[in-house]
Write a structure and sequence with these properties.
The protein is mainly alpha-helical and 104 residues long. The chain has 2 domains: 1-39, no CATH class; 41-104, no CATH class. Helices cover 42% and strands 8% of the residues. It contains 3 helices and 2 strands. It has helices at residues 2-19, 22-32, 53-67; strands spanning 43-46, 74-77. It has a two-stranded parallel ribbon. The radius of gyration is 17 Å and the shape is elongated.
């Protein structure tokens, strides 16, 4: 199976670079190689600007929906601290300093 995955990576690397979409990459391997869900250990992560407790469950559900899954095996916290809550993955103040959340 390792040779098949390597061949698939080589064959799709140009497509993935152009699309830059993890969801499409997942579906390419899941459906093209006919791998069963039970044979995969799927990990996702929660970004530092989305660590607010009110955001976590919704983002996990969105990730699972995007991947067409009922569950992920491991959900990682991106870093051991939180950035300020919002849509900017690396929020900065007017001086260019990263804004860290004081929630925790």
């Amino acid at each position: 199976m390792a040779k098949g995955i390597k061949a698939g990576l080589e064959a799709t690397s140009g497509l993935v670079k152009r699309l830059k979409n993890k969801d499409i990459l997942f579906h390419v391997f899941f459906y093209c190689f006919f791998i069963s869900r039970e044979d995969l250990f799927i990990t996702s992560k929660l970004w530092a600007h989305k660590l607010h407790p009110a955001d976590v469950e919704g983002l996990l559900r969105e990730t699972m929906s995007n991947l067409g899954l009922d569950y992920v095996d491991l959900y990682l916290i991106h870093v051991p601290f939180a950035f300020a809550r919002g849509d900017d993955p690396v929020p900065k103040d007017d001086k260019g300093n990263v804004i860290v959340s004081t929630l925790f």
